[in-house]
């Protein structure tokens, strides 16, 4: 056991292991972080840190190494079941971008990509297209049209009285 970090036991006694971390919402289908007894005790805290610092463009392997006092090989081993450090962070950012475009379809893509820590528009466009099968602009347009359809679906008064029923529509952005 590496004993140079304040979180490590200063006596020879071993601490009980932390429960295996659960994947953050939206990563079902990814390999599980629950790899049994080999799960590193710092992984749950690192995953929480990533969620809290997701919009920081400096978030990456180097920042996590410094913050959690782990070596690069150790960090890579911890994230191997999750596809790697960079892939995990990119996936979390993409899922957040997808959600924000759905919730705020008036948001500009340029503002969003820099707000979420992506370094370039091209990087963001390619990653989004690869993950969701459509460009961020196409997704935003679908979400805008869904918002407009919901506005139009509100009951309207007929000239002779009464209300018309709203048409049913597939919810693309819900």
How would you describe this protein?
The protein has 174 residues and is mainly alpha-helical. It has a domain at 36-151: Orthogonal Bundle (Arc Repressor Mutant, subunit A). The protein has seven helices and two strands. It has helices at 43-52, 61-68, 72-79, 85-103, 109-115, 121-132, 136-152; strands at residues 156-157, 163-164. It has a two-stranded antiparallel sheet with strand order 1-2. Helix 4 (85-103) crosses helix 6. The longest helix has 19 residues, at 85-103. The radius of gyration is 22 Å and the shape is elongated. Residues 1-37 and 164-174 have low confidence and may be disordered.
Question: Which SSEs are present, and which pair or pack?
Answer:
Elements: H1 43-52, H2 61-68, H3 72-79, H4 85-103, H5 109-115, H6 121-132, H7 136-152, E1 156-157, E2 163-164
Antiparallel strand pairs: 1-2
